[in-house]
Design a protein that fits this description.
Layout lengths: L20 H17 L15 H4 L5 H4 L7 H19 L4 H26 L11 H12 L15 H20 L12 H22 L5
Length: 218
């Protein structure tokens, strides 16, 4: 088939934002929820996670609800950008509507594990913890297994590139938490232990999740 005179059929245009809808919506939901959070009488503090709840069981929903609130615009934008950076390669492992549900479930479980991990380290503390950073670090750990791969093939956990990158990320995470400085969270304690728990969980479990729920090769 020939093209009409004067028409040039060049290569297809690349999308400016080439991210699965579920990953893009996840990132977008963070600033939207923060706008709603600002309208709450207590600024969303009642949705925070308290490590003491692991002992006394007084506010178990905080394990989940803490992921929905943030400490400021810098905090929420940093998490949204990170989710948009690391979410798409993970979301592509799980196609379709069922895959979107699996991706969101994976993200949420990473966040729950991050909160529990932080709570176990600071057991009994009443210091409130907010933010989706632990869940985002879970996506980061999962995405690391796709580093430089083609066709969505996961690298082995023992791959030298995976281990080297993971070691660097965890070293920077620990240093940032101990120094107490990170963009968007000035003056607040950085829950680097939650980041580490979410990251390691995502790194280790993306393989089994992809085998059970991922796309099947024909």
């Amino acid at each position: 088939m020939q093209s009409p005179p004067g028409r040039f059929d060049g290569p297809p245009r690349e999308k400016i934002l080439n991210a699965p809808p579920v990953a893009a919506l996840l990132a977008l939901s963070m600033p939207v929820l923060f706008l709603l959070q600002q309208r709450l009488p207590d600024g969303g503090l009642s949705y925070a996670f308290l490590p003491s709840s692991l002992v006394y069981g007084d506010w178990w929903p905080g394990l989940f609800s803490a992921m929905l609130v943030h400490g400021g615009w810098g905090h929420v934008l940093a998490n949204a950008i990170a989710a948009l950076a690391f979410g798409p390669p993970v979301a592509r492992l799980f196609p379709g509507l069922r895959g979107a549900a699996v991706f969101l479930a994976f993200y949420i479980v990473c966040g729950l594990v991050a909160s529990i991990g932080y709570g176990l380290v600071h057991l009994g503390s009443n210091d409130p913890v907010v933010g989706a950073s632990g869940a985002v670090f879970g996506l980061m750990g999962a995405a690391l297994r796709l580093l430089g791969s083609r066709g969505g093939q996961l690298r082995a956990i023992t791959d030298r590139r995976v281990l080297s990158a993971a070691a660097v990320i965890m070293a920077v995470n620990a240093a940032t938490g101990l120094i107490g400085f990170a963009p968007g969270v000035e003056g607040a304690r950085i829950a680097w232990e939650a980041h580490a728990a979410g990251f390691v969980f995502g790194l280790l479990t993306i393989g089994p999740a992809a085998r059970v729920f991922g796309r099947k090769s024909s």
